[in-house]
Amino acid sequence: MNSLILHTATRLLIGVMVLFSLFLFFRGHDEPGGGFIGGLVGAGAFTLYAIAFGTEAARRVLRIHPITLIAYGLLALVISGIIPMFTADPFLTGKWLFIEWGGVEAKLSTPLIFDIGVYLCVVGFIVAVIFALEEEKVPGLSNRSSNK
Amino acid sequence: MLINLLLIFGIALLAPWIYNLFKERAGWVLALLPLGSFIYLLTWLPHIASGGTVTQSTTWVSMAYFNVDLSFYLDGLSLMFGLIITGIGTFIVLYGGGYLGGSTYLPRFYSAILLFMGSMLGVVLADNLISIFVFWELTSFTSFLLIGFSHEQENSRKAALQALLVTGIGGLALLAGLVLMGFASGHWEVSTLLNEGDIIRNHGLYLPILLLVLAGAFTKSAQFPFHFWLPGAMAAPTPVSAYLHSATMVKAGVYLLARMHPVLGFTETWMILVGGFGLATLLISAWLSLSFTDLKQILAYSTVMALGTMMMLIGLGTELAMKGLAVYIFSHAMYKGALFMVAGAVDHEAGTRDVLKLGGLRSLMPISMVAAALAAISMAGIPPMFGFIAKEIVYEAALGASAWPVVFISLAVLANIAIVAASAIVVLRPFFGQPVETPKKAHEAPLSMWIGPAVLAGMSVIFGILPFLIDKTLMLPAASGVWGEPMDFYLSLWHGINLPLILSVATLAGGVIVYRFWDPLRESAAMKAYQGGFADLPRIGYEKLVDGMLALAGWQTRVLQNGLMSNYLTTILVAALVGIGYTFLSRSGIVMTPTFEEVRVFEWALFIAVLTSLGIMLAFGHSRLTMIVGAGIVGFSLALIYLMHGAADLAMTQILVETLTVILVALVLIHVPKLTESRSAASRTKDGVIAVSAGLLMTLLIFAATAAPFDAFISEFYAEASYPMAHGRNIVNVILVDFRALDTMGEVVVVAIAGLAVYALVKMTRHGASKKA
């Protein structure tokens, strides 16, 4: 869409939105947030970018094909499930590793990997559908054809 | 054993990277994996040979009333299968590297074939009924990938789908059978079930269990009338046919019935069904193999014949038959694997597999010729090969049948005459006689492609001459595993002159005569009719069935999903109204005790806002955009209600989803024609009635639900356990990623599949859906 306001605002906003989505993602285990919500915000960021600059530009910024993101997400889910099996625990048992470094305690865990998988799948799903629909412009019906 | 399997699956997934590391040598590197598993299994041989068994168990899914364990059971039977799978697997990985060398899909082949090997090994090693089924389905799935390997070709895709549908439907039947078996006996481990056969046999559900398990085994092992998928699956590259369709996967059904023999066998029904279908299959397919000129088709039908023989032996259920089964399976794996690989090498080097277009290759491909000749002699059952010992015992077992031994033996001899002729065809035609101009200038296959057939054919000779090398160590434990109790026997090449030997000589003489007259026989009208009736008819039946199903699906789609959204909604809402409404009114009845005291002022305000927006939407909704805005207000109001009740996560999700939905719908709206108000008053009234009744039903349901006393047990458990057990304070997130992660996983998979489907649909219309299915 050719709007100076939208372009400028998007440039400023996309970074904040991606950061915000990561923030929501990481705090999700203790505060409202998590992979699903974080993924929705992240997908929102790329959707906004696609609306402002066109899907081609948004694809370049995303670098990875959204369908590939879904695949990696599913892989993360499976990996998080298989890890505990190496210690003879059932599939998807939560495994935790607490690392203290400079007074800050980091919690690494298989549920975290699981949540990363959820995040990637959600982002991949929404972005894939929105990009596909955006690109699906039928000449004549569309009034926004500036991105080609 | 679990580690071994996980290693196979892990390396299978890494195979493309390993390929990039080693390029054309990757086959030799990756072959170390099956070789390693083979050696690992071999280390158990002394223990198994001395009558021991091994069980290992890891909890996989644990539930309050029911566990699924990844448990493994190694006895003589599973060890023999395991050795066949990993041993031939080693050669297949090597062979595949040579056969598909230069193909861009070679890395994919390595992945798929190793995944298949892991699944197949899982089937024979698994102890738990559910995990057997899981591995069983994995073999169907990976074989689908392998049969459809040349996915640019339509017949490959069709063959892959056909194999998947036939074995998949059988797989579902098997699942039902295994679950019934588990609940009927209370045992889920094969190792314990083996001693509880009487419980199952005397159970009222014995017949359904048996029929369901047989449906699974017969489809997998291509028994008549499901045999058509196996020759169809020859569309796969030859390494796949050699591995899946001769040595391993098709024997999964045989393995299953052999494994279940002590549990389900020893009854008259078993003998009639398993023995009868086996006998029919072996006779029909043996002669079908003579109606083709394609090497792989001939071998495919001879494989179906071998599978029929194995089924017949299992059906006979005598001690002698069990001995014959073990020996026959082992000898078949060796000669048929070798023959398939040679057939592929001939195809690869000479450019055709049609025996009529081949001849005189013996000087050009000497090693392949020797390997093929030895393997074919073993298949024909001629001394001193291992195949001779196997056929002698099969004859002996058929003669010892508890009922109609004459029928069994005469049909077996009749079938074996055809197999002798087929053995002669696959060797004499391509390698001997006058040299023929072949599409490609033939030369010897590379080392990676002849080493497998050479070693396997060599083993047929060695074990034939020196059977004592394996009779007590491998054959005896395997046969005992099927019999259910320890047995004792030894193998030898020479039994003296007895009835089986005389029958063997007669078989051989018959086979030579049939071979002599093969050309006129193949071209005869009788043979054509035979092929039409038994090879084509079941396949055509299958195709008609699939076409019928597609037509039915097309019809019901046209009726239910005619492209009008309002029709979909009507269908869904009416179905829900009738189904839920009937159950609700008949089971619970209307409860009218809503309490409004706790409702706060702003909740009323929200309620009114929602109602007004709905009203505006209904009254002035002449454009789709207005309607979406109205729906948006409802959504955002809902988010506010969530927030007021402290469900922050839910509210955030609702707001985000609502926002993205508006964008999505706006994008779709571009393509949708403007709303035209052409509906009659009657149709609007109908819609109004449905909408109001649906809303009313929902309200009544909520009244009823809130009237029931609230059980806080579950939510309290999560609130208390969340931090101590899962180190998280956000209960919603902890439930999603930890407590109920399996549910989430299922939902995410649904999201992923929906994403793929939407993407495919949108992209399909873009590139012009000219090639619609």
TrEMBL record, chain A:
GO cellular component: plasma membrane
InterPro entries per UniProt: CPA3_antiporter_subunitB, MnhB
Membrane-crossing residue ranges in chain numbering: 12-29, 35-55, 67-88, 108-133
Coiled coil: none
Subcellular location(s) per record: Cell membrane
Alphabetic keyword roster: Cell membrane, Membrane, Transmembrane, Transmembrane helix
Membrane topology (UniProt): Multi-pass membrane protein
Domain Na+/H+ antiporter MnhB subunit-related protein: 5-127
Family, similarity comment: Belongs to the CPA3 antiporters (TC 2.A.63) subunit B family.
Name of the featured protein: Na+/H+ antiporter subunit B
Lineage: Bacteria, Pseudomonadati, Balneolota, Balneolia, Balneolales
